[in-house]
Structures are given as C-alpha cells and as structure tokens.
Design brief:
single chain; 192 residues; alpha/beta; five-stranded mixed β-sheet; two-stranded antiparallel sheet; 7 helices; globular
Length: 192
C-alpha cells in the first residue's frame, strides 16, 4: 500500500472525510514529504506519477480551495472517548526559501507511517526552541486531548531539557526523548 493510501485511510477513519478528499489530501501530504518543499509545482510533480504534473497541480488547487481541516477540530475529534490512544511527535525544522527563513516547532500525531501536524508554531528566530515554547505547544494540545490518551510523545535530543521533562512528568505525559550520548542520568541515587 502506498504512503498516501495509508494516510487517506487514517483520515477517512478518524476525520470522516470523503474517500476521494482523503485520497487527495494523502497524495498532497505525501508529495510535500517527497518534494521536501512547499512549492505546489514541485509537490504536483511527486504526487501521482500516473498523471501529468499539471493535473496534480489542478487537484492541489481544488483541495486548497475546497477542503479546510482545522487543527482544533482534529484535536476535538481525537479527544473523544473511545477513540484509542495516540502517539505524538515533537519536531523542529528550519529551511530557507527565497528571502525568507522558516523555523517551525510542530507537534504532530503519528498516523500509520505518516504524521499529521496538530499545532505549528513559527519560532520567528534562528536556532532551537526553548522550554517555554515547548511547554506552550504541548499545553495547547492538552487543552483538548487528555494526557491519558497520549501513548507516547517522542522528540529529538534538542527537546530533552530539565524544565520540559519536568513538565511532561507533571502533566502525566508518557515520553521517549533521545538524549545526547554524553548525558548522565541519576535514578534512585545511581548515575548511569
């Protein structure tokens, strides 16, 4: 099954999106990942190799005109009882495009082998996020999604600050954060 089919299935199941719209959104998101770009023409070239890129581009334009998925709606849907647990991923990415630098902190829900962004925060600065910014993006999700529904929150080395980990423990969020290899942890009086 292709990546976009898995994502479309997840969208259809959890968001009650029409099958063709879910397929289009899945292809679009897969195209963004493959293109590693937000330029629509580059995404269109990678969405569906069985059709002309111009057809993909028209499909993208229709999706953007007709489909609106609000992150708050996604969180409300995820927060409903009986929907199962979710895996969250915290990530930061930065890139430059034509005179503009982008540095985004994103909290996404893992869905099959893809991730659907729930909250995206423009850091409006160079470099890593700080604990205050990480806590704010997490708390925004926790307003709607109870912590007991979060199976795990994953993140890279840059997120493993004492303040953020303390907040995760306080909010009862299970987490798995990568640590720098030279980090020592003390647990029950023993340093490892």
């Amino acid at each position: 099954m292709q990546e976009h089919s898995k994502l479309a299935k997840c969208l259809k199941e959890h968001m009650k999106v029409h099958e063709q719209r879910a397929k289009g959104i899945g292809m679009f998101m897969s195209g963004v990942i493959k293109a590693r770009s937000v330029h629509l023409s580059e995404i269109g070239e990678r969405m569906n190799s069985r059709v002309e890129p111009a057809s993909n581009l028209r499909r993208i334009h229709r999706l953007l005109e007709e489909v609106s998925i609000d992150a708050e709606d996604v969180l409300v849907m995820m927060g409903k009882e009986g929907q199962g647990n979710v895996k969250l991923s915290l990530d930061r990415s930065d890139w430059s495009s034509a005179r503009q630098k982008n540095n985004l902190l994103t909290l996404a829900v893992a869905c099959q082998n893809s991730a659907l962004p729930l909250v995206v925060h423009d850091l409006d600065k160079a470099g890593c996020s700080n604990s205050t910014e990480r806590i704010a993006i997490l708390d925004q999700v926790l307003e709607t999604l109870p912590s007991e529904r979060i199976e795990v929150l994953t993140g890279d080395r840059e997120f493993a600050s004492v303040a953020f980990v303390t907040h995760l423990i306080k909010r009862k969020v299970n987490f798995a954060l990568r640590l720098p290899k030279d980090t020592l942890i003390t647990f029950q009086g023993k340093c490892q």
